[in-house]
Amino acid sequence: MPEDKYKMSQLLKKYAINLNNVQLNKLWQYHNLIQQRTQESCLTGIRDFNEIILKHYVDCFIVQKLITIPFPLLDIGSGAGFPGILLKILFPDEKIILAESRRQRVQFLKEVTDSLNLNNTNIFPKKINQNFETKVKAVITRALEPISKTLPRVSSCLERGGFAIFMKGPSVDKEIRAFKKSFSNEYSIVKNHAYALPLINHQRRLVVLQRRA
User: Fold this and answer.
1) At what angle do helices 21-41 and 103-115 cross, to 10 degrees?
2) What pTM does this model have?
3) Partner of 84 at 20 to 30 A CA spacing, among 2, 19, 97, 135?
4) How many CB atoms lie within 10 A of CB 61?
5) Per residue in 94-107, pLDDT tens?
6) Which region among 47-61, 73-87, 90-104 has the lowest average model confidence (pLDDT)?
7) Which residues are 187's β-sheet partners?
């Protein structure tokens, strides 16, 4: 096993993220694709190996330890595949839709899904709006836009009783206050969880809303 691949697996294990051989191989392949394409497509501004593992991969993997994620899942503004590709590696049999409007990132997502044989993964190459009507049980975003901007865009696709999952930084309280003013009749907050990635003290917040039935 390459030294960096072994180091990656050990960093993940420190967060109790234990991938099987197939999952680890896919993650390593995905990591190498990011490294190869990031200069031409600016997929991530993070270059340090440890920071990529912790701030991107662990940050995405850890969500499934904090909430049971329902599927089908729509990842809005997937970018380089955070968190959609990482969650697909964890849940290979589940349906995930990657919504991304930027052409270079769409091309990258297609390359990843083809290279890693990620079946039952759809790429929607446009911005999600009220005309997107494919029904999903959950939507997820990672540092995309304010909560109150996302909710109207998913009004036609998120099922009643479904979940809107927001991966945020620590300064999300203003967004929550704005959400309560405009959407508290339609959604309830089921999780507002502050946490940190201990090795680097990276502060995060997971906000989960449930659409009222």
Assistant:
1) 150
2) 0.95
3) 2
4) 20
5) 999 999 999 999 99
6) 47-61
7) 211
User: What is the token pair recorded at 11?
Assistant: 């960093």
Question: For residue 44, is pLDDT > 70?
Answer: no
Per DSSP, 163 falls in state: E
- 79 Cβ contact list (under 8 Å, min separation 6): 43, 100, 102, 105, 142
Q: Look at residue 34 in the predicted model and tell me its pLDDT.
A: 87
The Cα–Cα gap between 134 and 137 comes to 10
**Edge-first strand listing for the sheet containing 121-124:** 121-124, 96-99, 73-76, 136-142, 158-168, 202-211, 187-197
Q: Which of 115, 117, 59, 129 is nearest to 87 (CA)?
A: 59
Partners of 203 in the β-ladder: 196
d(CA 111, CA 41): 13
Alpha helices in 42-92 (DSSP H): 49-51, 59-61, 63-66, 84-90
What's the pLDDT score for residue 43?
65
Domain 60-211 has CATH 3.40.1550.10: no
